[in-house]
Amino acid sequence: MQVKVVSNILEANEAHAGVNRQRFKNNRVFVLNLMSSPGSGKTSILERTIDHIKGLLRIGVIEGDIYTAKDAERIGEKGVPVVQINTKGACHLDANMIACALAELPLDQLDLLVIENIGNLVCPAEFDLGEDIKAMVLSVTEGNDKPLKYPLMFREAKALLVNKMDLISFTDFDLDLMEKDIRGINPDGKIFLMSAKTGEGFEAWCRWLYHQVQAKKEKSSVTASG
Ligand code: MG
Ligand code: ZN
After folding, report:
1. Residue 15 contacts by C-beta under 8 Å, 6 or more apart in sequence?
2. pLDDT tens digit string along 111-170?
3. Which of 125, 128, 144 is CA-nearest to residue 136?
4. What is the Å distance from ligand 2's center to 124 Cα?
5. CA–CA separation, 143 vs 218, rounded Å?
């Protein structure tokens, strides 16, 4: 019985995610679902990413938090449209929450929508939001054990942002071991070594993200004209 209930929740989520995906396609907006544990630096990475590419792409943000609008306020200061979702206890975003938030965003005027998920390495990875790609942040202060302990999220992530590289010498984080563990789970994921504090690695990450956004636009214009 328990299993049945869980599968119904995920099936209902799939239906909402499909509707979202079609809306994103119709509006030619690329959607990134950004996940990580709490405190890994998602919001700081997002702030710097916006600084890097807001001259090239029109960006909007959905901020997921259990309580408070602190992160949305930080993002709002960057002058981009932002909507806060407070899940009031729920530990992940689902596709229906995103559908509600979309009513508050000028979707037809965006190239890139970033969804900052709830800080949690487990269930956010199970809920499709209709996004184009998932990316995740792992900070070096979290240690090497995370990929093998939480393989689903690391498998689903098309990009892994290894943050807080400025602190690596104060930790025993092993980059070679991290890469070996990731490759065992997710052979094709892109890995970016970066620091939201110093800006290291943002050039490469933002270039890659920009190309992902452009590739979707090109694909959708081919489909539209053909
Ligand atoms: Mg945050
Ligand atoms: Zn959850």
Report:
1. 95
2. 999 999 999 999 999 999 999 999 999 999 999 999 999 999 999 999 999 999 999 999
3. 125
4. 6
5. 39
Measured between alpha carbons, how far is 191 from 92 in angstroms, rounded to an integer?
24
CA–centroid distance, residue 66 to ligand 2 (Å): 10
Cα 201 to ligand 2 centre (Å): 30
Task: Tell me the three state secondary structure of residue 79.
Answer: coil
Strand order in the sheet with 112-116: 82-86, 59-65, 112-116, 30-35, 133-139, 159-163, 190-193
- Ligand with smallest separation from the Cα of 120: 2
CA of residue 140 to ligand 2 center, whole Å: 24
What DSSP element (H or E) covers 34?
strand 30-35
Does this model's pTM top 0.85? My answer is yes
Written as one letter, the residue type at 113 is L
C-alpha 87 to ligand 2 mean position (Å): 10
